[in-house]
Amino acid sequence: MANETTDVLIVGTGFGGSIPGYYLAAGGASVIMLERGPRFSSADFMQSLQVGTFSRFVDSIAGTGIDVTAGNCVGGSSVVYYAASLRAPSFIFERRGTLGRRLWPASITRDSLDKWYRRAEEALPVSELSWNDVPYAGGVFAAACTRAGHTCQPVPVAVDLTLCTNCNWMHTGCIFDAKRSMLLNYIPAAEASGAQIRPLCEVQSIQPAQTAGYRYAVSYQQVDPNNYSNYVGSGVIEAKIVIIAAGTMGTPVILQRSAQRLGGMPSAVGRYFSANGDRVTVAAFDDDKVQSLLGLQRAPGVGYEAFPIGKPIAAMTFDYLNPSAPEFSRFGLQQIYFPPIVNLIIGVDGTPSWFGVAKRDLTSQWRSWMTILAMTEDANEGVFGAPPEFGNFKRIGPASVGQLTYNTAPETTYGFDLSDAASRSIMTLDGLATLNLVTSTNRVQCAHPLASCRMGDDPETSALDDSHELRGHPGIFVTDGSSVPTSLCVNPSLTIAALAERASSILLKRAHEYGVEVKEVKSLPQS
Amino acid sequence: MRVVLVPISPVDLGVGGSIEPVPISTEEPFGSAFFYRVAEMRVMKRSEIDRIIEREDERLAGSTAIAVRITRRSLLKRVALLAAAWTIGPWQIGVPSALGQELNTLDVTATIEAFADTLIPGQKRFPGDRAIAGVVSGAGAVQAGAIEMLNFVGFEEVLPLLAVGLDALAVLYAAGHSIALDPTVPPFVALDFNSRTALLVEVLDESALTRSTFYGIAALCFVAYNTAGYLPTAVAISEGHPGLAAIGFPAPNSDGIWRFPEFSYERILARPHPHSKSGNPA
Ligand SMILES: Cc1cc2nc3c(=O)[nH]c(=O)nc-3n(C[C@H](O)[C@H](O)[C@H](O)COP(=O)(O)OP(=O)(O)OC[C@H]3O[C@@H](n4cnc5c(N)ncnc54)[C@H](O)[C@@H]3O)c2cc1C
Fold first, then answer.
1. Residue A410 contacts by C-beta under 8 Å, 6 or more apart in sequence?
2. B227 and A340: CB-CB below 8 Å?
3. pLDDT attached to residue B74
4. Is A526 inside a domain boundary?
5. How far apart are CA B222 and CA B43, in angstroms?
6. Model confidence over A116-128: pLDDT tens digits?
7. In angstroms, what CA-CA distances link A291 with A278, A365, A423?
8. Is residue A520 part of a domain?
9. Could you tell me which of A103, A224, A352, B75 has the fewest CB atoms within 10 Å of its CB?
10. Would the CB atoms of B226 and A343 count as touching at under 8 Å?
């Protein structure tokens, strides 16, 4: 039997998959999008921390030295993300890392990316927050920054403020359709233009096609919706153009597994992984000091005690993003909400450092907590080992175990130390709060995986050229977080979206080279 | 009378390995040393384990130290069981049911409860409660449903194995610290709160070989207390889940949905960075 064929086959439906999916379908190409996870909508999401509910669409993947959280559903990580939508600072694009030479392609700078940032901001769309939209936690963060002599501003978010209830349940999928995930913009627009989305199809590998006129054959397994380790069928689709956007944790694994059949892979595939320098600490506030030092009251006698209220990210200081400061010393510092699943890892002084009576006492102050996320400049030190037989990682009982090893480099540790010191100096001033580190584990906690199949100008240290095309494999493009060359000092989704916007315009221009005729697409997805 | 455990000589298990549980050198975290040796052993059959225990009984016959005998006997049995299961791989499979049935369910529950209570302590449930040390007032992980949580994720099968491991470690700890263990309760339960804590600090240390086995269980105890992860959150709150109450997790609206119409100080609380534009860095 002949294989199914399509002009464009896309793997993954996050930012990296949905955006080119829309443009290519709107341009007139036939598009099939294969997604490993299930398809859910706001009607299916639940405000619940019950194990087995949110875990149906988000994975926590244990590597060596690192834990990574990533989405597993139509819409990808955008379904569970916190919607902070920031442009990366200009200096990021000039970073040289530990290699001592420019890591981003020369053609990509903040200036050149700004027009794509603008498109993504319009399409999502992104809302600028006024101080009236900033929840209590962001307010306390801002006031603490001010008191310590720092600046601070509201963070732009991809949220419809008219629908947002400030419920603080973004991590389990927004039930109000206020959060502008891919489910509300690019995906419906892609489908309206004829793109087909097939959930529960896990791509395993790519090989040369058999059918004349088609370049690649993509094999996938159909996943049992009740047990993701179980396969209930399989298929092969041949395509003229293949776009891999299985996310930073998925893309390199599929490519590594395909290396032999495709006749080799650039050595940067599965190397140079960046955790975006993510570093988490917790400030636990003395509520009397919130009132007396910051002059804040949200009710009579109550200063803050509002950790679980609001949008999860709303305030940030850019004071440590000095372009002339040396590399690895710069970071963005942001207020963020972590649901109490994370209470396990937070530490107290003394021994034991993360359990026992003192920890229980700290936890009883949970409403006075504020998680702080520093996004530092890491050293791209993550490396993927050999891929498992199937899937992106092994599901063993309740755990997901991946092949990624992240041995924190001295440069990264330096950034962590500086950001910890900055958080401490702001939050503990005059006893306002205590600063608590993650002590139950030395593992890096990452929700912003990047760079495992990065682009660049140097073929030795980059897997993609500046058009996102996989070196040595014409017609295979990578457009997700794995293509971002370095950590960003801000949350990465808007940069992934802007790069995918840019890549889509390149794809539309070049599709004919691969036998796919498309027209220009200027309009943004209508929502 | 205080019975002090005497250091026992290396025990030849006759199955391609020996264990040397005590005395423990202070330089070497005994958890690692112990598990290292155990991990080297191959799977033992029930009959082999029985034979070893019989041999030990014979050797100890005539000894006046009854408590020592009981503890050594149970130590051997438990270590052997643990070795058998560990070799197979702690997360890959449950305890073979034949081995699981060997253990008293009440002992297993008490040992796991004592573990959970060491992580997030609570008050005793009743005057003679031995599993809970009772070092604080209010609920701890046990009251918050640690056992329900472990069962919810399907760990019933591995709990006997984990209890066996913890109790073996507790016996070693007691021996190393000249602590007399009450033979009427499982060894980990027999330890006082400070000893339980000191032992778990070693067992859960990131460098210990015991870490990977017990950290997952510890995590689930935290999930039980901090999130009521075995229940829909709104249901847990309406049932008065003690962990969610203790951390101050807010209640939803009357329809079971969370919304916070009051959420902001509605004040300008900082000046923006001079080079920022529309909320973005330059
Ligand atoms: C809890 C959380 C909060 C976050 N908050 C923010 C935030 O506030 N701001 C921000 O900028 N970023 C945030 N992020 C990060 C952001 O969500 C991601 O960087 C971004 O969504 C990644 O997009 P992507 O397209 O690269 O990958 P993903 O969105 O992860 O998409 C990859 C898709 O591919 C699918 N897939 C994987 N393997 C296969 C396969 N073999 N076959 C088929 N399909 C496959 C996956 O299931 C997934 O749907 C957050 C992330 C998390 C987890």
1. none
2. yes
3. 56
4. no
5. 32
6. 999 999 999 999 9
7. 30, 16, 20
8. no
9. A224
10. yes
pLDDT digits (tens, 9 = 90+) for B118-173: 999 999 999 999 999 999 999 999 999 999 999 998 888 778 778 877 887 887 78
Classified as helix, coil or strand, A414 is helix
* Among A51, A151, A397, beta carbon nearest to B91: A397
Structure tokens at A83: 């919607």
The more confidently predicted of residues A373 and B22 is A373
Ligand 1 site residues (CB inside 6 A) read A 11-16, 34-37, 69-73, 76-78, 80-84, 171, 202-203, 245-248, 250, 254, 313, 392, 447-448, 480-481, 491-494, 496
Q: pLDDT, tens digit, for every residue of A384-417?
A: 999 999 999 998 766 789 999 999 999 999 999 9
ipTM for the predicted complex comes to 0.96
Confidence category of residue B236, pLDDT binned at 50, 70, 90: very high
Distances (CA, A) of B102 to A115, A458, B105, B240: 69, 63, 9, 37
Q: Which two tokens stand for residue B267?
A: 């004040």
Q: What is the CATH number of the domain that holds A169?
A: 3.50.50.60
Q: Which residues of chain A carry a pLDDT beneath 50?
A: none
Q: Tell me which chain B residue has its CA closest to the CA of residue A304.
A: B265
User: Given the CA of residue A248, which atom of ligand 1 is nearest to it?
Assistant: 26
In terms of pTM, does the model score above 0.80? yes
Which of B259, B268, B275 lies nearest to residue A167, judging by beta carbons? B259
Residue-range definition of the domain harbouring residue A436: 4-42+49-514
- Smallest CA–CA distance, residue A199 to chain B, in Å, is 26
Question: Residue B77: its pLDDT value, please?
Answer: 56
Q: What is the DSSP string of B254-267?
A: TTS----S--B--S
Torsion angle, alpha carbons of B179, B184, B189, B193, to 10: -50
Q: B146 vs chain A: nearest CA distance in angstroms?
A: 13
